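User: Teach me something about this protein's shape.
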Amino acid sequence: MPKFLDHKKVPNLKFQDSRFFGFTLIEVILYVGVLGILLIAISSLMMGTMDNYKTSSIRDELASSGHQVFGFFFRETKNANSIDISDSVLSNDLGSLVLSTPFQFGSNYVGEATIYLSGGRVMFQREGETPLVLTSDNIEVTKFKFVRVTPRAGLEGVRFYLELKSKAKPEEVFSLTTFTMLRGGYVQ
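Assistant: First, the predicted structure itself:
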């Protein structure tokens, strides 16, 4: 082995080639560029994930509010004897429904149960009780319509249209349409 290649025999660093120490400017620019591209890709992936989470949370809140409104509507109309037509606002996109219903199941006392809008939120109230808020502040009710249906004499039902929209992301909408017969409508 030649003497000048043996690193133990080289007395000091001045005989070594300086091209092999450090980075060139082109290498630094290349490394920074690749690192920048990786950071942009990772941040866009994280932003997309956070946006998907936000959209999913909004959809879940819309569906949960819609389910809660539907549950109160279905339970109360199934239990009701009749619709109070004079106090209800029917066939209107911002309607309300007033039902004559037993105060408790099997009770002889008949009171009113009302499902209505107040301040853009769906409310439910039984006679003599405090109103319950069924939708959150983050949700806008765009359609809240009740249509009375009488398929034949002695039968009474309600078709219900509900549309909820997110205030944070207005393109997210939850729609529900359902129909139910009143318990009092079955009595002949």
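Now, about its shape. Helices lie at 25-79, 183-186. The chain has a mean pLDDT of 84. If you'd like, I can walk through any region in more detail.
User: That's plenty for now, thanks!
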